[in-house]
Amino acid sequence: MKVPTAILTLIIGILITLASLWVSQNNGLLPIAAAAEATEIDRLFTAMLAIATGLFLLVQGALLYSLFAFRRQPDDATDAEPIHGDVSLEIVWTAIPAMLVLWLGIYSFDVYQSIDSVGTMGSHNMAHQHGEMEMVAADQGSDSTRLVVDQSDVSPDPLSPAVATETVEPLQVNVDGLQYAWLFTYPDTGIISGELHLPVNRPVTLNITARDVIHAFWVPEFRLKQDAVPGQVTHLNFQPTEEGVYPVICAELCGAYHGAMKTRSIVHSGPEYQAWVDSQLVANTSRETVAQSVTTSPLEHHAAAMGLPDHLHESHQSDLAQAKHSPSAS
Amino acid sequence: MTEAQAPAPHLEEVEVTPWREYFSFSTDHKVIGIQYLVTSFVFYLIGGLLAELVRTELATPASDFVQRETYNELFTMHATIMIFLWIIPTLTGGFGNFLVPLMIGARDMAFPKLNAIAFWIIPPTSILLLCSFFVGPASAGWTSYPPLSLMTNKAGEAIWILGVILLGTSSIMAGLNFLVTILKMRIPSMTLNDMPLFCWAMLATSALQLVATPVLSGAMVLLGFDLLVGTNFFNPAGGGDPIVYQHMFWFYSHPAVYIMILPAFGLISEILPVHARKPIFGYQAIAYSSIAISFLGLIVWAHHMFTSGTPDWLRMFFMIATMVIAVPTGIKVFSWVATVWGGKLNLCSAMLFGMAFVSMFVVGGLSGVMVASVPFDIHVHDTYFVVAHLHYVLFGGSVFGIYAGLYHWFPKMTGRMLNEFWGKVHFAMTFVGFNICFLPMHVLGLQGMNRRIAEYDPKFAALNLVCTIGSYILAVSTVPFVVNAVWSWLAGPKANSNPWKGLTLEWTVPSPPPVENFEEDPVLAIGPYDYGTPKALDFVAATLALPTPALAADSSE
Amino acid sequence: MQGSTADQNQTDITYAATVETAEHHSEHPDLRLFGFIVFLVSESMLFLGLFVAYFAFRVVTPNWPPEGTEELELMLPGINTIILISSSFVIHKADTAIKKSGDVKAARLWFAITIAMGATFLAGQVYEYNHLGFGLTTNLFASTFYLLTGFHGLHVFVGLLLMSAVLWRSRVPGHYSETSHFGIEATEVYWHFVDVIWIILFLILYLL
Q1: For chain B, what is the mean pLDDT?
Q2: Residue A10: count of CB within 10 angstroms of its CB
Q3: How buried is residue B274: exposed, middle or buried, by Cβ count under 10 Å (0-12/13-18/19+)?
Q4: Superfamily covering domain B25-482
Q5: B29, B170, B184: best mutation site toward chain C, by most C Cβ within 10 Å?
Q6: C11 CB near a chain B CB, below 8 Å?
Q7: What domains appear along chain A, each with residue ranges and CATH number?
Q8: I need a surface site. Which of A244, A286, B500, C130 has the fewest CB within 10 A?
Q9: Would the CB atoms of C60 and A325 count as touching at under 8 Å?
């Protein structure tokens, strides 16, 4: 009956470790990973979940055990043994979390650097690129101003494993958030769309801004989110790896219809994407058609109430040109 | 010895605060403490009602219960009330006022009048905030990010800004009072290292209140000018920068999280040893970790802004700083577990809530470390994962801590015992309801449900319904508590001066304590957690020999 | 229980330099000045927040001040600065007078002079406001300028009120004495605080 404490502790430790690993490997909590970056983030999540489960089981187990084992006997009015502390134990539970946190910090940093989602870690490409960004005021009535990016010298970041094997230039898409819709502009082709169409396995750079209030671009399946701030351009770099249709969600409170501000992101196979581009270009020859297809009902409703955007974009031309808020500029 | 066995010798009658005193501009710290507790509990019920309306809307995927605008107003006011009118006033104003002077052997706070003013700012301000429902209250979230906050419900937003400035002022006054009281008013025999841990926690909290709150006021002034005068500090349409607001706001509002949890840490550090009949494990580690948390809490604010276009080096700095907070917090949690371990647990309602606090706070703490990691936060920021996290910290943490404190000190405050049976019913319902309500939210957030939305993807319907049911259980769970508290206050069994056999100084005075607390300055006879020593037995025996005050309702008994 | 390290730790956090030496009596000592200084620490965080916000706006705006904003005149604010800084020395005279010899009359005189100097400063400020080429809402620079100087001006005004209150109270003989002079001392500390804030303001708004 008497099992030595050391062995008992060891067994419990092993059991907790196994349970934590099992839980983290089989959590099924995240939606499918549809981008190269998502896989990295999921791995980080799995690691954190394993540690968290272990600590959770440890603390809850100890509390539950105490609840039953150390219950005061009804006839016992004496105090428990006066133990005021134990220096070595305290050092252990200071040092172990400290090391865990340090490791987690380094690991997170590593993942962050490798996904390079804002495209600035360790390289100054973007700064240069922003320098050449110019604003083209086109067709103020229907689609306001558009960002046109000169991407002549954008090279994929060598640090990023996600794009290391690819030498394809990232597809540039300008994302515009407004109450309560997203507008996607493809500067290469001039296509304007209410949905985000992407070719699979090609790096993408989103240049995100907003017209009225702060929005946030989020595709849960890509695990990527970036605030769309009026008067600023922020970026997201990623590479979709799974074909499919995913929700694009506004994740920053933007007004009464915030919950309804959604659209779709469609990741096509290469030929399919080309077909979509072609069909859009045909439509594009007569601009009215595009304007109509883009200006669907919620947009139309709010376009009138938006005296703000045009004025705003103008007043910020110079700011945008310098990409004043982009991380690389600081 | 849970209830009603008070041997209570009637040696002499002690004067008891007449009930009218509680409605007056009293400068007695105990009266002010109870004024805070009762007022803020009323707002807890109001804030809870708003939360129930929010959850009712979310019971189904469509926006079908209230108007979309109304929905935004509801969650904005829910957060504002719960933070500024419930948790902060209860923990600092309520427990801090009642306990700190008693625990350090002082007759009152350092500045009694300032103390009363700090409290009396709250009722008019809260009525003002509630009145904003007549003009359409603020609806841009409690974070009130511009430019959205500049564009919706102007009158409501203006009231909200004024309200936050006033409540902030009240909080600064209270913080100033606590800091001076704790540093300067202790009995001579009590060094800082002899203080009960709640006082350490209040010291750390008041430093945060003093340093962080003014920055919020500054942000509110600028926002107010933008809203009412037409300046463009935060409005990009006029050249301003909304991100600066976010920095100023979170410079206060992250420390505010510690203002809301540090005092609860302190309460738990008092309650666990008493009911475990065992000294607190690692006194100094717990004391200094409060100070460490308070300091670190000031330099982590931008982790709320990982997706705001914050520069990379800043994201990394704030990520590391945030994660480091896990170390002092972990020290506390492990110390509490070690305190309970090997004790002789008296599983009364206070102890159950206290242990549940540790258990629930751990969940919030672990998810907190996860959201500190930038790459993961990019996914879950502004989702229900964060909603789950913050409620595990602020409800599972702060509110459980408050309940534990209420059960523990109710006899001292009122001179009467709460009913233990209904206390346990209350505990069971709260614990179960809380977990049903908030645990599924982790999954919802990870799966892709963003927060602050009135309508959501139908695939989340089942889990949301579970959450809503949990929230109803939570709502019902307050009924036994309120009835129990009111009933016991009026006619509960009388409490002796030390029903839990505690060793801190508040148990050395009658229940409820007389005006000016101590007839003569107490001398420290025993450390606050010296359980299991012969000295402790003597101490408790001495406290039990104290007179029992004649309570108001006695004449009718 | 290991006192000294704890005290060190604790003073760092609370910004109070001489905490542990305090004597404890059953009649607790007058803590008002200590409390007032703690309040000013808190108050300075308000200004610090606004200063940092100013720098943030400045950094993110391409041209600061924006083109077309009228240059700030240095002459008047320069004189104003000299007046305000000198007034700190004047008010200190009052403090010395009351502390050394309990000379209420001298203290009243120095306070009156300080009030005059403070009022001159405010008048200069109002004059400057009236002759500036930009208004509160002209642009971000103008807004921050008016807000910071206005907020400081408000503090100067409160200082004048405090000094007037001290003057009013000092009519009663014996209200202030060698040993009891919280009002005078606190007002002086406050005035120095307002002065320091102005020096920082002057540096960042006019000179930088």
Answers
A1: 92
A2: 11
A3: buried
A4: Cytochrome c oxidase-like, subunit I domain (1.20.210.10)
A5: B184
A6: no
A7: 7-66+91-115 (no CATH), 125-329 (2.60.40.420)
A8: C130
A9: yes
